[in-house]
Queue: 3 jobs
Job 1
Amino acid sequence: MKKRLVTLILAGVMVCSLTACGGDKPSAGVDSAENTTTAASATSAETKSEETANVAGEDKSDASSVMVYYGWGNSEDEEKYTTEIYCPEGAQFSENTLEIYEEDGSVMTVQVDDEINEYSATSKMHWHRDAYNNEPTGYPIIAQLYFDGEVDAETAAENSGCSQTVTPLGFKWNGYDVVLIETKYTFKDYGEQIELFVGVEYDLDYWKVEEGTGEVKNLTTKALFGFDMYSYGWDELTQDKCAWIAGELFGVDSGVANPFAVSDEETIAPVADVEASALYGTWLERDSDWDNTFIFNTDGTGVLISGPEYPFKYTVSGDVLTLNYDDGDMEELTVSVSGDLLTMVDMFGNELLLDKQAEEGAETGETADIPTELISTWTNEDGTETYAFNGDGSGYQNYEGAEYPYTYKVLEDRIYLSYDNGSEDDFSFYVDGDKLVIMNSWVYIRQ
């Protein structure tokens, strides 16, 4: 605030450097999984920086895709399980992905990261238990629930509440339906885990050696190929976001518009006009060491009390409050009013919350912000605790025969208690006829 000392703390931001990619993608799907695909050459960071200067329309797919092999451990027909994966717009292939790809011509695992939209996607293969020779060790929960419909005893002993939802996303890749698989489970004492996987089910050719005979058998089983999706920001990955990311990775049209794109209209928040009359009265800043108080009079004058007093004249235009202090200083703040809460944001982005102070009634002594239905004595159902709320803002709590006087005020749906012994308390409430409900669960009966 203008009249108080403000300490600004500048936080350093660590930015992870990732090799940039992106570029043109085919408008239709990639080659069939049964056909051999031609590996595109991933270029180094230095070459990519030069390619950004290419003229519009020039094919830059070699800077935006890598070849991934998703059938390791199967028969020798590796080309059948090699496909081109594309980098989503605005994301980056991990440096490790590109390093291995440049060396080997394909990778086992593809990882992309988007620092702006705060998500990552990592390619993953899940096979039916057959390909594990029916051994439960290493057989993940997502595969157990997807292929078997349940988890085995060993997994159940380590996890509880395992569940899975499979949602078709309405588009295909290489003829396979793309689905979103959401798997939830609780691992011992670590709370609920949620895994998001977007991919396809396909037939995997594999081989195994028969015990005893040593005969090599070529077999086929079900498998999943796709991407684990993870959000490392505050926003969750919605179904539309997962579908769009998967479409970008597979290089096909998901039918979903980029959910991360924000239009110019959306970036400009509409100004909420604040009427000057909404400010009339006395406002006390929360958590203030100096009990900072603003008083706005109906004639456009006011005063800031912060130890000393600073008289001012004020005007309101849209959501901007302008204070012209009598000593010549001027200050502009963005303000909003919601009931008895005034929010101010100063030029440094500091937010101040101020509560409107009740005006004393001229005759009854009752404060204007106390709901009349609250004024009564209330006792819980087993008779061990009583709250009394008088019309003048005083009252008491009686707990198991001991009485604790207090004063109180009401702000929207909360009661704030200041006990005579110096302690404080607050809780939400509502009145339903002759019942006072505290914190949505504790019921007290009107006496």
Job 2
Amino acid sequence: MKKIFGIVFSFIILSLPVFSAENVEWTTKTGLERVEKIGKNLLTKNNLPTQVTFSVVETDEINAFASGDNEICVYTGLLKFVENDDELAGVIAHEIGHIINHHVAKQSIITSLTSHIVSNAKLSAKVRTGAEIAHTLSMRKMSRNDEYEADITGVDLITNAGYNPLAMVSVLYKISGNYIDILQTHPSGDKRTMYIYDYITYTYPQKLKVKYTSDSYSQFMKYATPIVEKRNASETKLAKFNENQAKLKEKRIKKMEKYKKKNQISGWQASYYLLKSLATTNAQ
């Protein structure tokens, strides 16, 4: 039986990067020192619970993920394409964003319920197939929404910790590919980076005055500038943009404050721990 609590949230596992940073020999030890330092700084500066652990895996695979047990893992393959602490902070903050929003717990529970349905011998093959299809479609939509939510939560975290949020645009645009969006669980690179940039534009407009120099950011701005100019030229579009961003900002503030209440566990997280306990007991 497939282990249902192995669900993790990956930063990206897409196409090969077009850009690369300086040739740095990253190992598990050197990578972990840097990841832990930045990760702990993000938690401390944002006054977040510190029950988050960090690890680094030495592999050429370009990835990072958060687990349901509040562990964040970064692969050395991804570290090779991080140009500075701001960009690495963006990667780590994105994963902390998944933890803050309880994304892993939520998907684990839904997957568990679906697994129970499809393994029920009393149900017809048609019903089981329908459950699998519904699960795939709902998880795909949920994953996309979760990625967006983790992205902008990450923007709040790195900005509050003193890092440049534009670095998050740079690192994501650098290592994400442009692909057929409807077939993927992750939104396309253009859509995600634009979503992040829009959030920075409204919530942290002063940060746009701080120049960020990287090839990937420069290429992103070639894509973003015409979109921004077109929006700003229309009073209706600009008003709608501001309205949507105000709601998004308010939602983020509420979720962050809720997570900071250290003794409060979300319903998703409580259910996750219960199911994990039951699964461990049954496996013994």
Job 3
Amino acid sequence: MNIRESFEEKELEELSPYASHSRNSRGRAVAEPECDIRTVYQRDRDRILHSKAFRRLKDKTQVFLSPQGDHYRTRLTHTLEVSQTARTIAKALRLNEDLVEAIALGHDLGHTPFGHAGEAALNAVCPDGFAHYKQSIRVVELLERDGRGLNLTWEVKDGILNHRTAGHPSTLEGQIVRLCDKISYIHHDMDDAQRAGIISEDDIPITIRVTLGGTCRERLNTLIHDIVQNSMGKDAIIQSEEIRDAMATLRKLMFDNVYTNDVAKHEEVKAKRMLTELYEYYSAAPEKLSREYQKLIADGEKKERVVCDYISGMTDQYSIHKFEEIYIPKAWAVY
């Protein structure tokens, strides 16, 4: 018995009967030899972690566009917080921590520069629309590794595709990530908004503070414990009605006071216009795309979709750089 097989045996002995056991994965679109050390979900986690799309998350907006300060979240720190929160819950429920981690690390790989503002801009101009959760799947199935994709397992892709609020993950591990994504952004966006002076604890209704806690840290702790207590030994990931309703109220408060706040979002109009201009430029001149994206068009991918692939893969700063390169006049001199 090799190391991987011993891990698989340990999963069968120790994990909940509702867990997704590595040995029972529905597999990959393209069959490949098993690793003698890592389970299939451990391999998926590592492939995502070493991907180019994952590295680019460090320079993509979470909520605050180009924030001045070292402590504001980026798309990468959001991803890591989702992963850690989800792993904590999975470990407590004896579910597959490796699967949870792989889904969490991959769930936002397809996000645009400038967060949801960038997503809205591409969705408005692309004839087929644009959604980051679908783009994340496109990244792992096609765009990474020069058009070969990462060849992830079915369970990881299912969790990535269904991480949005309206999603329905097929595994409990996917259900955990879906809920932890929401928990994490409410938690850390509130923390960032308080740091920016946009909102304070006094703006949160006293009933919510009594139910969830009086600080960001206390609220996160309450939300995690509630899920663990209500999901233990069950075939679904569950929140109590009281905590679920309180979290929904807190989320609405964030939308009303932070996500649509003029102070936090005043640069969004510029970002949307910039990405729209980039889309129109590359749609008219696809030969200006980098070589790997030109190849996708030559291989039969729709030009409009490939232009979205290129722009959505950009970091905030790279998209600004390309816009300046294309549209901003440069000083010149004659010697």
